[in-house]
Amino acid sequence: MLLRLLNRFISFCNEVEKYLQVQNPPQIIMQALDSLHALISINQHGILTETGAMLSKLPVEQKLGKMVIFSKRYGCFEEVIIVAIRMF
């Protein structure tokens, strides 16, 4: 359910971006999309990635969530989770 809503929101943002490309989009929308791209939450087509789906389930700030997700992949989860708890 949450993933479906998040996908709809991203689709909506992409449609707004396409519409606003003609009319000079507000800086805040462009910054949000750039942030999602930088976090590998959406791909170049604006589709939610696997990382983005995992991030949407974590009740933490996106950069902190990405740090936790990638720590599991790189085998340093215990060390990173201690840092993440301190930052949260």
Keywords:
88 residues; mainly alpha; 2 domains; 5 helices; 73% helix; elongated
Task: Describe the model.
This protein has helices spanning 2-21, 27-38, 50-57, 62-74, 77-87. It contains five helices and no strands. It is elongated, with a radius of gyration of 15 Å. The chain is mostly helical and 88 residues long. The chain has two domains: 1-56, no CATH class; 58-88.
Provide the structure class.
Answer: mainly alpha
What percent of the residues sit in helical stretches (DSSP H or I)? over 70%
Instruction: Tell me about the largest β-sheet.
Output: none
Strand-residue proportion: under 5%
Poorly predicted ranges: none
Q: Could you say how many structural domains there are in total?
A: 2
Shape: elongated
Summarize model confidence as the mean pLDDT.
81
Q: Topology as H/E string?
A: HHHHH
Query: How many alpha or pi helices?
Result: 5
Integer-rounded radius of gyration: 15 Å
Number of strands: 0
Measure the end-to-end span: 26 Å
Write the layout of secondary structure elements.
Layout: H1 2-21, H2 27-38, H3 50-57, H4 62-74, H5 77-87
Helix pairs in contact: 3-4, 4-5
Offer a concise description of the structure.
This protein is mostly helical and 88 residues long. The protein contains 5 helices and no strands. The protein has 2 domains: 56 residues, no CATH class; 31 residues.
